[in-house]
Design a protein that fits this description.
mainly alpha; MetI-like fold
């Protein structure tokens, strides 16, 4: 008998792949290629002079440093939030679950204005923090707060389905064998949810790197102190320095790609390690 071809739900692999590649090219590859091509208007020395000025380097440090810190904070508290939503029943649970998605729906400018109003020296929280020497608004700390706010849903919504599918029998078996709560979490639960945690972390980080609207209000945008790289790009565009703007954008793309590649390699290594056990 001639072997029968495996039937797929969507027939026509060649057509489907072709449409996918064309779509990705139009939406992702061609715009990114255009950014790289625009920088060819600059010589190497001009490019290096633009992307290594002290003011621009300061924006790199703040943008990527604050994004990584915010992603780490969301990694911890996003897991805690997802755990509470999955493992416990309490009054107002559905409301809390809906509030997690609020940063998705809320316009970033509105989020920035709200955070500034809360953490400004005369704001609801700022008026209590200021006497203790804690300044949030118009400081790098305010940038971290804004990036944490917009990145939390990515971790929660990535980890939550994994926790919901995780069987409680494994925890009960570990407890019956004498494992304490920490050992059960570290040995049983964490390996199962670690890939989802890394995915949520990378999504939160990627969103934070490119965030603009919610940051510019609370950051204060002071050069060398609280100025982010996306704002630096906008400043170049307002000065009609398109080549300089694309040069800075290329540096952001390369650094973001390298960091996300390292995170994906870590995720692959983690899956491969636990898959072989």
């Amino acid at each position: 008998m001639a072997s029968q071809k495996k039937k797929h739900l969507l027939p026509g692999f060649g057509l489907s792949l072709g449409v996918t590649l064309v779509y990705l090219s139009l939406i992702v590859l061609i715009p990114l290629a255009a950014v790289f091509l625009r920088t060819t208007e600059l010589s190497w020395h001009e490019f290096w002079a633009v992307v290594t000025t002290p003011r621009v380097v300061a924006t790199y440090k703040l943008t990527f440093g604050a994004s990584l810190l915010a992603a780490v904070i969301n990694l911890v508290f996003g897991l805690l939030t997802a755990w509470v939503l999955v493992r416990y029943q309490f009054v107002g649970k559905k409301i809390l679950d809906a509030l997690v998605d609020l940063p998705f729906a809320l316009p970033t400018a509105v989020a920035g204005i709200a955070l500034t109003a809360i953490y400004a020296p005369n704001g609801w929280l700022g008026q209590w923090l200021e006497p203790h020497g804690i300044k949030v608004a118009f400081t790098p700390l305010g940038v971290v707060v804004a990036l944490t706010f917009i990145g939390l849903p990515f971790v929660v919504r990535t980890v939550q389905p994994v926790l919901e599918d995780f069987s409680a029998e494994a925890e009960e078996a570990a407890a019956s064998l004498g494992a304490n709560r920490w050992q059960t979490f570290y040995k049983i639960i964490l390996p199962a949810i670690w890939p989802a945690l890394l995915t949520g972390f990378s999504l939160a980080f990627a969103r934070a790197v490119g965030e603009y609207g919610s940051v510019i209000f609370i950051a204060g945008n002071m050069p060398m102190i609280s100025e982010i790289t996306p704002l630096m790009i906008i400043t170049k565009l307002e000065q009609y320095d398109y080549a300089g703007a694309t040069a800075i954008a290329v540096v952001m793309l390369v650094i973001s790609f390298v960091l996300l590649l390292l995170i994906n390699l870590l995720q692959w290594w983690s899956n491969h390690r636990h898959g072989n056990k």
